[in-house]
């Protein structure tokens, strides 16, 4: 199906189930989407990492590349610099709480007491999920020859190292 037809069909389906089931149908669909994306990406990450020899091989190669003169420490949490880290934290503090997975935890709860565990669980899932693309990106930087700025690490690593069906699912979930 061409993109325009697929977009129209997808939009019609979402409007239909929203009209039919109301907010609960949207919340249920979002829960399924979140589970598919988080678990799908986690499985894809494990497959991709296994294809390059496992986490030990990934971290060993990253350390080796980091030791080269003039290189950035690929395993450093602060190599991008404090201003960039502060920018990311600020951006995520304002965008993550308004994301569907968090907003639905608040809005679909019957009261504030019920919303608290749901929002904590959603925050934990979001935090863990944030590490998955970083690991896949590290695979791209360390195992794709000539990889550099301006390229999509997640897409290229997935296409290069995952079986086609897994790559298709990952790229569709993104």
Summarize the structure in words:
This protein has 174 residues and is an all-alpha fold. The chain is built from 7 helices and no strands. The chain has helices at residues 3-51, 54-67, 82-95, 100-107, 112-143, 153-161, 164-173. Helix 2 crosses helix 5. It starts with a helix and ends with a helix. The mean pLDDT is 83.
Order of helices and strands: HHHHHHH
The level of helicity is: over 70%
Query: Which structural class matches the secondary elements?
Result: mainly alpha
Uncertain spans: none
Number of DSSP E strands: 0
Can you summarize the main beta sheet? none
Number of helices: 7
Give the overall pLDDT as a whole number.
83
Query: Gap between N and C termini, in Å?
Result: 19 Å
Radius of gyration: 19 Å
What fraction of the residues are assigned to beta strands by DSSP? under 5%
- Overall 3D form: globular
SSE topology sketch:
Elements: H1 3-51, H2 54-67, H3 82-95, H4 100-107, H5 112-143, H6 153-161, H7 164-173
List keywords for this structure.
single chain, 174 residues, mainly alpha, 7 helices, 78% helix, 0% strand, globular
């Amino acid at each position: 199906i061409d993109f325009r037809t697929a977009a129209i069909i997808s939009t019609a389906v979402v409007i239909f189930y929203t009209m039919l089931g109301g907010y609960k149908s949207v919340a249920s669909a979002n829960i399924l989407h979140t589970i598919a994306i988080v678990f799908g990406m986690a499985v894809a990450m494990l497959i991709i990492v296994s294809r390059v020899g496992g986490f030990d091989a990934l971290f060993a190669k990253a350390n080796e590349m980091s030791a080269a003169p003039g290189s950035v420490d690929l395993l450093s949490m602060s190599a991008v610099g404090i201003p960039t880290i502060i920018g990311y934290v600020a951006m995520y503090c304002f965008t993550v709480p308004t994301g569907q997975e968090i907003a639905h935890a608040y809005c679909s709860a019957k009261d504030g007491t019920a919303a608290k565990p749901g929002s904590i669980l959603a925050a934990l899932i979001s935090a863990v999920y944030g590490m998955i693309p970083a690991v896949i990106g590290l695979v791209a930087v360390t195992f794709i020859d000539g990889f550099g700025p301006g390229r999509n690490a997640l897409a290229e690593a997935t296409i290069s190292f995952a079986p086609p069906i897994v790559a298709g699912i990952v790229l569709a979930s993104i």
